[in-house]
């Protein structure tokens, strides 16, 4: 029993060390990605190949309820046939808002005005290059 307790303790210590390394690695990835995004934007480059990878500049839009307007937004969504969204994860709300925007000439419908916030984030997608 004591040997197993020691093993468990060692494994938890290893996990803690790996989590710290992962946190640092993620920070480095974010820094490198941000720098590469800026370089690609400055050089008006949307993609390039390097070795066996393709690097693609991508802009992702994130839509969400403005906290102070959440109740009004939910009421408006329910009035417009989206009551089913409030029994499933919030990512579905975001996806539905994106779809509404796409189906409305890239504009949110007027009935959502002032209730939805958005921001865009430029990222780098790294893919295996096709031969």
How would you characterize the overall build of this protein?
This protein has helices at 2-42, 70-79, 90-102, and strands at 47-50, 53-65, 116-128. A hairpin with a 2-residue loop joins strand 1 (47-50) and strand 2 (53-65). Helices cover 49% and strands 23% of the residues. It has 131 residues and is α+β, with helices and mostly antiparallel strands.
For this entry, give a set of tags.
alpha+beta
Outline the fold blueprint.
Elements: H1 2-42, E1 47-50, E2 53-65, H2 70-79, H3 90-102, E3 116-128
Antiparallel strand pairs: 1-2, 2-3
Number of strands: 3
- The chain-level structural class is alpha+beta
Sheet with most strands: strand arrangement = 1-2-3
Main sheet attributes: strand count, strand direction, barrel closure = 3 strands, antiparallel
Shape descriptor: flat
Tell me the distance between the termini.
55 Å
Radius of gyration based on Cα positions: 22 Å
Kindly state the percentage of residues in helix.
40-55%
Please count the helical segments: 3
Oligomer category: single chain
Mean pLDDT comes to 90
Give the ordered list of helices and strands. HEEHHE
Strand content: 15-25%
The unreliable regions are none
